[in-house]
Specification:
The structure is a single chain. The protein is an alpha+beta fold. It folds into 2 domains: 50 residues, Orthogonal Bundle (Arc Repressor Mutant, subunit A); 80 residues, Alpha-Beta Plaits (2-Layer Sandwich), CATH 3.30.70.920. The protein contains 5 helices and 4 strands. Strands 2-3-1-4 form a 4-stranded antiparallel beta sheet. Helix 2 packs across helix 3.
């Protein structure tokens, strides 16, 4: 469910979201303690936040290199046309590639920005070739990462972090 920040999110809801984003494995008892509630109302709030789509899920943050994914790269993809059928077909295609970790339709300079992982340079080259040879793809520019200085998931949720 897509939504902008609702007026019905109070400071406790935001605190819950912040704590869960930082550590989604904590128990409800620990979460309740951190946000200043007893466990039952805290759990009700978490369930409400889940039902309303503020919490999309819970996952483990895996280390790609430890699992053999040595390369992260971005690909800027330009298509021959921006007809909705072509855009949607491209999105469906890359959704089947496990190496494509993110796919964003963008403005300016291309149609899609992808974040991919590869086991090695040969695998990266194979993925680039697959992209280049895909239907309606006009150009592919790849940008391998050298290092990652910051890699945060989620969004800022406390009100103090909002831009002025």
């Amino acid at each position: 469910m897509r939504r902008s920040a609702d007026a019905d999110l109070d400071s406790v809801d935001l605190h819950i979201l912040s704590e869960l984003q930082e550590d989604g494995r904590m128990t409800n008892v620990e979460l309740a303690k951190r946000v200043g509630l007893s466990a039952p109302p805290c759990l009700r709030r978490v369930r409400r936040l889940e039902e309303r789509g503020y919490i999309r899920g819970y996952h483990a943050d895996l280390d790609p290199q430890s699992l053999g994914w040595q390369i992260t790269f971005f690909a800027l993809v330009g298509l021959e046309t921006q007809k909705e059928a072509v855009l949607s077909a491209f999105e469906r295609m890359v959704a089947t590639w496990p190496e494509v970790r993110e796919c964003h339709m963008i403005r300016g300079g291309g149609d899609f920005m992808l974040r991919l992982v590869a086991r090695d340079t040969q695998h990266e080259n194979e993925l680039t070739s697959r992209l280049t040879e895909s239907a309606h793809v006009l150009r592919v520019q790849t940008m391998p990462t050298i290092r990652t200085a910051r890699d945060l998931s989620g969004v800022p949720v406390d009100r103090e972090s909002e831009p002025a």
